[in-house]
Amino acid sequence: MSLQTMGERMDLEREKRFLAAHAASHDRIYRYFRRRTDGPATAEDLCAEVFRIAWEKSGHGDDLSALVLFGMAKNVLRNHERSLSRSAGLIGAMRLERAPEAQGEGSAIRESIDHLAPQEREVLLLTYWDNLTAVEVSKLLNTSATAVRMRLHRARKELSRIMQEQTVSEGAAE
Fold first, then answer.
1. Which in 48, 81, 93, 121 has the greatest CB count within 10 A?
2. Can you tell me the distance from the alpha carbon of 114 to that of 37, in angstroms, rounded to the nearest whole number?
3. Which of 101-122 are b and which e, b meaning 16 or more Cβ less than 10 Å from the residue's Cβ?
């Protein structure tokens, strides 16, 4: 077998692995970003960045499992957030221009989730919206599965308390 044929076969295998990982995880990674960013365009850009990195890693034979891709997504999101914090003045101006979200049950839940502690919010979102198991979340957050389950328990309890508090305060306002 010639070197050119071997190279073509390796490229084909790399492309197949990448396309399989992309097909299996793209929607989940996009939704991960969509819930954590201000719009679909940003979410799609960050998702594309994850798969650009994944393509590079696929050339080295690295693992492209969903958990690895979520780890990449977490790092890409962290870099994105750092970039945003460096341009706080611009972001402040953009927030003033953004249209207010429609009120309803969905926005009340999102608002309640925003009141959770960051660690609890992250565990809740990864578990329920990204459909990861406690073991997967623990690997992603570099903690134990027991700690993840405890944070999830606290997050659900606190979310329930916040939502009840909002219901009571809305009832008193009427």
1. 121
2. 13
3. eeeeeeeeeeebbeebeeebbb
